Amino acid sequence: MLIVMRQDATREQVDAVIHAIEERGCTARPIPGGERISIGVLYNVGPIDPATFQGMPGVKEAIPVTRPYKLVSREIHPHDSVINVGEVSVGGDNFVIIAGPCAVESESQVMSTAEHVKRVGADIFRGGAFKPRTSPYAFQGLGEEGLRILARVRENYGLPVVTEVLDMEHFDMVEKYVDIVQIGTRNMQNFSLLRRAGEAGKPILLKRGMSATVDEWLMAAEYIISEGNPQIILCERGLRTFVRHSRNTLDFSAVPVVRRESHLPVIVDPSHAAGLRDQVLPLSRAGAAVGAHGLMVEVHCMPDSALCDGGQSLYPEQFEVLCRQARAIRDIAIQNH
Ligand code: PEP
Ligand code: MN
Hints:
- By secondary structure, this protein is α/β, with parallel strands linked by helices.
- About 35% of the residues lie in helices and about 20% in strands.
- An eight-stranded parallel beta sheet has the order 13-12-11-10-9-8-7-14. The chain has a four-stranded antiparallel beta sheet with strand order 2-3-1-4.
- It starts with a strand and ends with a helix.
- The mean pLDDT is about 95.
- Phosphoenolpyruvate binds near residues 132, 164 and 184.
């Protein structure tokens, strides 16, 4: 349930509502808005009668929340959330492009890729320091040295950086170095990691599990937000299906569904969806057209010698075309919005 207070509600009236919620064994979560405060009622075991709160002084209305997710839902927060990452805003009418290699391999590989993607239009730089690889014998990432290199990208090029955290053990370390902490597809339902992300002071990029429903994905985001971190960017990265012509199947229809259901920004990762370079540009155009708030794309200065995901990494000159086309399409897409 969401209790919307009147614009002129006093502090005492708000406190009285919070007290009434807590007396019923629930948790009250005040949600400050532009004009008025609302209070979310969480952890109720059964339905609550709106009439309980409707008559209280200062209450404008009590709205039952019909969805299983509460704080991520548009029912509770009707306007788009905008996540600020340094000077970059993710969400609303902004379109962000996150680009960089799959993995941080060396200082020179990262710097030359960063120089290029920055020059042609990336807003945020990506690169894995801890890689979730199928094979234990494959390159696992440079670990903390990789994080230091990413921090130098921010210093040298002014680009915020995002990297994946694989486990609880490394959360503090990852959070210290980067601007956005990524939770990958394989960890989307790692509930202790989600709770830790909820305590983080940094935005979280939450990828959709490779066989998760939209509800499960939004419930994963609910874990993060319910622990107190509302800075979440969702990322659709393709589902595991029977097809063999691509690594995964990009579920474009999830984008308008998430936009309808949630106030959180949602971006598309065409690289891990495709697994093949020649599909990345068309999928990026489609992502912009379907209303995603941005893209996350793998780009490598020398894809043919990449240690990870070279086959899906764009050559720098292809990325330039992608930025131009995706931004042009997005401009058209939001005109009739
Ligand atoms: C990644 O973005 O580096 C990655 C491993 O992606 P996913 O979790 O979507 O497979
Ligand atoms: Mn990759």
